[in-house]
Amino acid sequence: MVIGALESHTAGAYCAEAREPSLEVSWNKAKRHPRQRARKKSIAIAMNLSADWTRVETNDTPSPRASAAIAFDEVRANVVLFGGFDVSQGGHSDTWIFDGADWTEADPPSRPSDRATNNLCWCPRSERLVLVTGVRFSRTGGHNPLTGEPAWSKQNLCDTWIFDGENWQELRRSQYPNYVHQAMATDLQSGHVIVSGGIAAGPKTLIGVFLLRDRRESPLVDDTWIFNGENWLELDLKARPSHRQFAAMSSCPDERGVLLFGGHGGEGKPQHLGDTWIFDGENWQEIHPPISPSPRSKAMLAHDRLSGTVILFGGHGGEGKPQHLGDTWIFDGENWQEIHPPISPSPRQGACITYDSMKGQIVLFGGKDANGYLNDTWILNLSG
């Protein structure tokens, strides 16, 4: 079955020869910003927190999209959003700043190419944001016969970019995680950015809109990489999460390592996963809480430093036929518990989420629900 024109690309087309730009790096644990320190709560207190989702009505906003990248800039104290994808326009390359009340589009002199990626993190060692890889879309000239929407081919990108609040700078290195759809989060204790899993970049074609994939599909990986603010380093670990993509990851509740949940992959036939892993900076360990969120991919995960907990929202999965999910869960370092706010964002996947440590609140933007692509902004506040 052929839908529209078929295009095939290799990731190497976007990987330039390695060259080392100057990038000053300084990291001093004693210098760590006080906003980053969590208030350690007991498990009993953490699990009795109340949660309130509030939709923010803004004067300006990014266009509807999923798979955008978002992170909080700890130095400039604002939320930064980059890129994303929607079926009508394809990939985006715009940069937006959210101050807690409104969005403003930035106009940096240089920027990464348009892409879908959830991989943007604060790097404490360089005191800048780091963006890793992504997927670029190109029109095939055809259309999806089921919806009439434009058909797109996709190209894996294998680059790293740094954002200093004013401009994007490509960071070219000879060694880097050459994957897409990986999980990424900041280890606040070491100051490293951690990347886990994904799918190896290689020849891939997308015909229609997530309908067909080239038979040369690249394999899922289970690698773990760290970024120290200057270079990438792959870790040689025996225990690790199984091969997967679209997992959710955030800083750990105690700020010592990172937490990973779910994704799509596993041993044998790929499936939605519901396992919980903690990386302490040296080793991965799977933990087995008595209750966990249902297996899912493309969920949103954020570390609320004020309460010392991690929040999970939505994703794609569920029992039977996979569907958009709209549940909210809290993790205290040992246990998961579902919470039931009176108002919540619509069930969705592929939204972007981050924690604003200046205002002590979680920010969620966009995604895709049963009705299409979204550009709503939500704030989650925990109290108790």
Automatic annotation (TrEMBL):
The record's listing under Gene3D superfamilies reads: Kelch-type beta propeller
Name the InterPro entries for this protein.
Gal_Oxase/kelch_b-propeller, Kelch-typ_b-propeller
Q: Which organism is it from?
A: Ferrimicrobium acidiphilum DSM 19497
The alphabetical list of record keywords is: Kelch repeat, Repeat
* Name of the protein: Kelch motif protein
